[in-house]
Amino acid sequence: MLQGFWRWYEGHWTLHLGIAAGLFFWQLAHLVWLTSDVVIFHLTGDKALDISAFARFLIIIADYTEIPALVSVSLVYLSELRQHFSKRNAVLLVLLNSQWLHLFWITDTYVLRNLAVRPEILWPSILFWIAVIIDYLELPVMVDVLRKFFRALRFRSSRGITVSS
Predict the structure, then answer these.
(1) How do residues 30-76 score in pLDDT, each as one tens digit?
(2) By the 8 A CB rule, do 45 and 56 touch?
(3) In whole angstroms, what is the distance from residue 153 CA to residue 156 CA?
(4) N or C end of the chain: smaller count of CB under 10 Å?
(5) Handedness of CA 31, 34, 37, 40 (dihedral sign)
């Protein structure tokens, strides 16, 4: 059954890669918010951007797509690692899946709530920076997945393969 799944998955490689890249690309909205509303505010006391209600709505959507993004991008790396082990892909898979720690252990809400209540306590501040670093670990993975997707599109177009085929 698992072999059948991988045959199907790899047979529709460009589609799955596009879905993974699209879902993952949404995470940039979260990183913009994290940088402008959280990191810069924590460092300077001022917000870098005044985020509109619509932008906050997009960030909420991005937050809800994080789990499907992690699963779909993990499948990309697992598929490639199945075919040929690469240290680079293994490291990117580990960086990507460090996001689960951020999601289930150190959430933005927890960290911000503790910082707002008692900013002088050291632990919440350390947890804040750990959560921020974990969030930014997905940037190299985003770049890599987008490269893989555009490479797959170029390959398809050089072979004369259309989207409908």
Answers:
(1) 888 888 877 888 788 887 777 788 887 888 788 788 899 999 999 99
(2) no
(3) 5
(4) N
(5) negative
Q: How is residue 149 written in tokens?
A: 């997707």
- Tokens representing 49 are 């951007």
Supply angle C-alpha 53, 59, 64, rounded to 5. 130
Instruction: Please state, in angstroms and rounded to a whole number, the distance separating the CA atoms of residues 104 and 101.
Output: 5
**AA identity, residue 124:** P
Q: Which helix (H) or strand (E) holds 117?
A: helix 108-117
49 vs 59: CA distance, rounded Å: 14
Of residues 79, 110, 74, the one with CA closest to residue 12: 79
Angle at 77 (CA atoms; ends 23, 91), nearest 5 degrees: 110
Structural contact between residues 145 and 76, judged by C-beta atoms closer than 8 angstroms: yes
The answer to whether the beta carbons of residues 75 and 20 sit under 8 Å apart is yes
- Assessment of whether the complete model's pTM goes beyond 0.90: no
- What's the maximum distance between 2 C-alpha atoms anywhere in the chain? 61
- The string of pLDDT tens digits covering residues 126-148 is 777 887 888 899 999 999 999 99
> CB–CB of 72/16 below 8 Å?
yes
